[in-house]
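input
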Amino acid sequence: MSELIRSEQHDRSSSYQKQDQLFIPSRSDALKILKQYNTSESLIRHAFAVEGVMGHFADRFGQDREKWQVIGLVHDLDYDLYPDQHCSKSRTILEEHGWPWEYIRAVISHGWGICSEFEPESMLEKTLYAVDELTGLIASTALMRPSVSVLDLTAKSVNKKWKDKRFAAGVDRAIIEKGAQMMGIERLELITETIMGMRKVAETIGLKGSI
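output
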């Protein structure tokens, strides 16, 4: 191979790397790719719920709201079409679309200990790990209320359901507990703040109810 060809390939590779480094996914990018790989309304509502909660915590911690929301929106990107390749397929998809490694790592770290070897490290990753399962428990609790709403839901009500292991049995409470410990907050505080985040998107996720 001539030096000229090698030089051209190097320049082209460097150009792609620079483009990847400059690409910052927006919410519209996240929403587009989410709907490209998901048709399940329940999964899309869950994505919106986690997005809302991540935005709420970003504000609380003084972090980049859109970045946290974007990652929350696509955290289960592969689950509709590739449930047996959860997290690993998301990594492949996001890499193919040129997403930054920081975003990809955050997405796949939420499956740590189950389908991912990447342990949550940043506060963003720890928060996603903690709230993913919790939004499901909160949604299930809200649906049992006369109002069918998160707007009048309290942490006390959710905590009561927490103790009933038969309720929302698919929710891994140990992950939520571990996530709260990672974040350095008490479980009731985590529940309260997650409810607050879900209230901000209550209508979007179908939990505004009769209020």
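quick obs: The longest helix spans residues 41-61.
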